Automatic annotation (TrEMBL):
It comes from uncultured bacterium contig00113(2014). It holds the Pfam family PPDK_N. This is Pyruvate phosphate dikinase AMP/ATP-binding domain-containing protein. One of its GO terms (molecular function) is ATP binding. Residues 178-551 form the Pyruvate phosphate dikinase AMP/ATP-binding domain.
């Protein structure tokens, strides 16, 4: 059939009007037919056939630059060489040019020709008829390109270049030295998130790292050298003097200029975090030892640089603080070998009334050493809170749940527990730049707010339930008046966000990739415009010690009747040898208002034990290491660094959950310190304080007592059986 080609053309055009089609014929008269059909035409025996064919392919298949032409005059009004330029051109071309190229699928062809198949597929389905206005079409196309560019930035660690840095470079490094332990973990998980396609795996939420820039350790060395700060390593200078010296020093000029380029793309508050060479390595993770500062973003570039520089220098200084020195010494490392990288990340959250905070902050561990009910140790455990994560990592009152059993939460099991054991306060960043001052306290510009004083904040609709006093019950209704209680029921019970599933998947992925149990930190922003996906920011990952690997005793044949202390909840490192001392807080007449005094006494006793190079068992009421002095003794790690076994002794007036999810707890487990929890008044374990009281004290005051045995005690902490015992040999 002579016109079979024309029939084929009509058939294809009926199915897809914009499919490129080229007619070839030996008859010049067929050119008119091709024009009527709206397809290309070349003469079969043309001397310029290859040139004409090349031109047609370049034009119709959109190879080369995308050329924008005026639809009336044909004059070129713009070009796009890459995706960034395409986004810029779409934002400013006339409406008729936008519609012309959209209706003919020219944008998608150009994208297909560059291998941008995912984006091209989305754009191809858009012909303009689905939108109420050209403005909506333009907004959709720009949004699709931005989303794709953001996705391209995931999983890549780019070298920072002030000339090319932009909004879509998601993870960059400044300098050529080491990234530091924490940043290495982030870079590793950045690639793993891409490998496991986590970014858009869950409906209604994007899973990704915050935009991150890492200052490598070579700039730390240069800063120390240029400012002559080497003397600090071997000096007895106080923390205040060290910080003052560092803050008054100048950052390397090259770093200063790169930071100037970086802040032009900062869209929100920044967290300036440590990433030392030793940090988050196996068995010595240095969790919470160094400082993290948060700063607001301000319009004045010079002021912003001063804020950022001050925060970076404060993180550098924290390497040499007393608590850091004690930790480095305890891990048998040398202070002179420690190098500090710095992570700069955008803070997850939104602003309200001059405060900035996320909907959810949390810590999750892939091993749960205190499973209840149907929970298993391998199900993991999570602690979450409204507001910044400082409350979680400092051991404040948070919501604790197993990601595999998110609806079975002990704290919410009764009205009494819900009212007494749920979050009472939250942290938020004060956005006034003058609030950020050079300070040893890295929370200097954080606000600590009572929950009921922020009851009308937008995020409350995702985080809070209401105590219905009239019916003596917890209500999810927004029409009920009453005390706000942080339950996250809309998330965990009604699954408005698949938080538990995301946490479970990330913990499993982390364990698989790091070949050991892990702990992660994260933040979630649900306060987003309607129709916009929530953001789950993966902030940190670190290895943890799996005490389940320790051998187990035959407890059926162990006599616990003569034990000084016996625990049915224990985490630890098997046999603990060479310990003869027990330091314990007196429970008779114990008053929570004295916990800060007790912490100071414990710190002094620990310092004395350190001088004598003697370990000890430490027993006290409530939660060790809590920043809330009403929940326990607010010691820091440096205050108890010589303790070989830590015991949390629940008493009638201080019933608290174990310290899991805190940096303090992380350091205890990583050092292989025995960790026991007892509540003798509930029949859960026992502590024979009466027997200890009969012994002569080597130290005693109003609150604390220390006894010493002539021979080392028998101490065994059985992580696998979850039991521990301390007795005389």
């Amino acid at each position: 059939k002579l016109d079979a080609g024309i029939d084929l053309c009509r058939l294809i055009r009926a199915d897809d009007p914009h499919m490129p089609f080229l007619l070839q014929s030996s008859q010049e008269s067929m050119r008119q037919t091709a024009m009527e059909l709206g397809v290309g035409f070349i003469v079969k025996y043309s001397k310029t056939l290859l040139i004409e064919l090349s031109d047609y392919i370049s034009q119709e298949f959109a190879f080369g630059d995308f050329v924008f032409k005026d639809t009336y005059t044909g004059v070129i009004i713009g070009r796009a060489h890459n995706l960034m330029e395409m986004e810029q051109r779409i934002a400013d071309i006339p409406e008729d040019v936008l519609l012309y190229n959209t209706q003919r699928n020219r944008f998608s062809k150009w994208m297909f020709s560059r291998g941008l198949f995912g984006l091209a597929g989305i754009v191809k389905e858009t012909d303009g008829s689905k939108f109420d206005s050209t403005a909506d079409l333009r907004e959709f196309l720009i949004g699709a390109i931005r989303e794709y560019r953001m996705l391209l930035g995931q999983g890549v660690v780019a070298k920072f270049d002030a000339r090319t840095y932009n909004d879509y470079i998601w993870f960059a490094r400044i300098g050529d030295g080491s990234l530091g332990g924490k940043a290495r973990g982030l870079a590793f998980m950045n690639s793993m998130l891409l490998k496991h396609k986590m970014y858009d795996k869950y409906e209604g939420v994007k899973v990704l790292l915050p935009r991150t820039v890492v200052i490598a350790t070579d700039y730390f060395d240069e800063f120390i050298r240029e400012n002559g700060l080497q003397y600090v390593i071997n000096s007895d200078t106080s923390d205040e003097e060290i910080l003052s010296e560092f803050a008054s020093s100048r950052l390397p000029e090259r770093l200063f200029e790169e930071l100037r380029a970086y802040i032009r793309y900062a869209r929100g508050p920044l967290a300036v975090r440590s990433s030392s060479k030793l940090e988050d390595s196996h068995y010595q993770p240095f969790a919470g030892i160094y400082s993290t500062y948060m700063i607001p973003v301000v319009d004045n570039e010079d002021q912003m640089l001063r804020l950022l520089g001050k925060a970076i220098k404060s993180v550098y200084a924290s390497v040499y603080f007393a608590s850091s020195r004690a930790y480095i010494q305890a891990t048998s490392n040398l202070l002179s070998e420690e190098k500090m990288g710095v992570i700069i990340q955008e803070v997850c959250g939104t602003e309200e009334e001059g405060l900035f905070f996320p909907t959810i902050s949390g810590v999750a561990r892939s091993l749960n050493f205190y499973p209840i009910g149907d929970e298993k140790p391998e199900d993991g455990i999570a602690n979450i809170a409204l507001g910044l994560g400082k409350l979680v990592v400092d051991g404040g009152l948070t919501l604790r749940f197993s990601p595999e059993h998110p609806k079975n939460i002990l704290q919410l099991s009764t009205a009494e527990l819900t009212l007494s054991d749920t979050q009472r306060e939250m942290y938020a960043l004060n956005l006034k730049p003058e609030q950020f001052k050079t300070s040893l306290d890295d929370a200097v510009n954080l606000e600590r707010l009572e929950i009921n004083k922020v009851r009308d904040f937008r995020n409350m609709k995702y985080a809070a339930s209401v105590w219905d006093a009239e019916n003596q019950s917890i209500s999810e209704s927004s029409f009920v008046e009453g005390r706000k209680i942080i339950t996250f029921s809309r998330v965990l019970k009604y699954d408005t966000l698949p938080l538990a599933r995301i946490i479970s998947d990330l913990l499993a992925m982390g364990e698989e990739e790091m070949k050991c149990p892990v702990e992660i930190e994260f933040a979630v922003n649900m306060d987003v415009p309607y129709g916009t996906d929530a953001i789950f920011n993966f902030l940190q990952i670190r290895p943890i010690v799996d005490s389940q690997a320790n051998k187990s005793l035959d407890w059926e044949n162990i006599d616990t009747s003569d034990a000084i202390l016996y625990a049915k909840s224990a985490l630890g490192a098997g046999a603990v040898e060479g310990v003869r001392d027990i330091i314990y807080v007196k429970t008779e007449g114990f008053d929570t208002s004295n916990t800060r005094k007790i912490a100071e006494i414990i710190s002094r006793r620990n310092e004395e034990m350190s001088k004598q190079k003697r370990g000890y068992v430490l027993v006290g009421p409530g939660r060790w290491g809590s920043s809330d002095s009403w929940l326990g003794i607010p010691v820091r790690w440096a205050d108890i660094s010589e303790a070989k076994v830590i015991v949390e002794n629940g008493i009638e007036q201080m019933r608290v959950e174990p310290s899991q999810g805190t940096h303090f707890f992380q350091n205890l487990t990583s050092f292989g310190v025995g960790y026991l929890t007892i509540s003798p008044f509930l029949g859960d374990g026992n502590f024979d304080a009466e027997a200890l009281n009969k012994l002569d004290a080597v130290y005693e005051d109003e609150f604390v007592r220390q006894v010493q045995f002539p021979e080392p005690l028998y101490i065994f902490v059985d992580g696998r059986a979850n039991k521990g015992i301390i007795k005389k040999e």
